[in-house]
C-alpha cells in the first residue's frame, strides 16, 4: 500500500492549498451551478469553478513546460470540467491541485517559470493558487449565503501576497495611491502581531509596503478575514465590519486603482 506523499517537501503552502481547495469543492459539490455570484458580476458558480480549476491546470502546464511566456488559458488541456454534475466537477477541481503539485515536484520547486511578476521558482504558484482558491471560496460562500471563515494567519498571508502583486506593477501604470500618500491596514486579531499590520505607500510611481505600525493618511481596521475581503472588494468599502480612519478617499482610491 503506497503512502500519501509528503507535500511539505514541495512547498510549505502545499497542504494548505489542498485543504482550502477542498473546502471550495465541498461548497460547490451540492450547489446549483447556475447560481449567480454577486461578487463576480456575470459569473455563475459553474463559471467560478471552471475559472479556479482551469487556473490550477494553467499554472501546472506552464510549470511542466518551463514556460517563459504566458500560456493562453484557452489552450489549457482539460480546462473544462467534465459532464456529470456538481460532484464530478468538484472532483475535477481537486484533481487540478494534484496536477499542479505534481508539476512542481517533477520540475523541482526552484525551476524558473513565467509568473505575473516575472520569472519565479515553480513553487511560487502554490501560494498564488492557494490564495486564488480562498478568495473564490469567499465568492461561493457569499453566493450561497454561507459564512466565510478563514484562519487569521491565512487571511493575513493572502493580504500580503496580494500586496506583493500590486507592488510588482510597472511604474508606468497609474498607482492606486497618490505620490507620498500612505495607507495603513490593521488586523484586530490579537494573535497576528506585526504580521497583521501593513504600511502601504506610493514612491516614484510604484507601490511599496512593509509590515509595521504607523500613521497613514487613511487607516482601515478589521479582522484579517474582513480586511482581506475588503481589499479584494468582496465587501463594500464602507462595510460596518471595517473601521476607516482618516481620509476615506485614500481608501476608496486604493480600491478603485487595484481592480485587476
From TrEMBL:
Transmembrane regions listed in the UniProt entry: none
Species the sequence originates in: Pseudonocardia parietis
Any matching Pfam family: MDMPI_N
All residue ranges annotated as the MDMPI C-terminal domain in the record: 153-251
Domain Mycothiol-dependent maleylpyruvate isomerase metal-binding: 20-141
Full protein name: Uncharacterized protein (TIGR03083 family)
